[in-house]
Here is the input.
Amino acid sequence: MHMGIGRVTELILQDGRRAARISCPAELIPAPGQYALASDDSRAPLPVSLSVTDSAPGGFIALPIPDHWMPGLEISLRGPLGNGFKLPASARKIALVASEVLPSRLRGLIRPALSQGAAVVFVSDSLVENLSDEVEAQPLSALNEIMEWADYAAFDAPREAVPGLRERLGKLNQASAWKEAEVFIQTPVPCGGIAECGVCAVVTKSGWKMACKDGPVFALGEL
Here is the structure.
């Protein structure tokens, strides 16, 4: 974990959401699934948790961002924080599944997946813009069929949706596939692993864990 200064260099719309291109030192750039905490001069009581959606020259693209952020804004960054996705080098059929309305957090896996020669399917009922021609898009209604096909799946889901996700996949009898499935759990991470405040607590098979430092990405079979 490092601390340093970043700068908002550009505002963009990504999948219908307001995102920012942020320039910063290389050691502050989160990997897919990790996050960084950002503070500006607005005197907000809590820092903003930034999820990386893609790499960018000299920095990264992140969301969600505060409404008052504009190009040129200098921000204090702490990161990268948490555990991100661990894309298996052997995976050749990869499903990226966004169960809610914010699919962008899974975008960062597309480039490394394609670079290792994998076929990639993006599964979401939300608009996913500017996908590579090499990436297939499917609705969530096709999830059962896609999970039969995939040898690795990355999910993005709210904490409260995880039990339902496990139940749905359990009905597919995909125990072997679960070993190669991970979930980004959407939950507030205000302290960034410092205070252990419990706001981001997640129930796992080995007991309570904190998404801010043990996650926010967990192996699905662990939950």
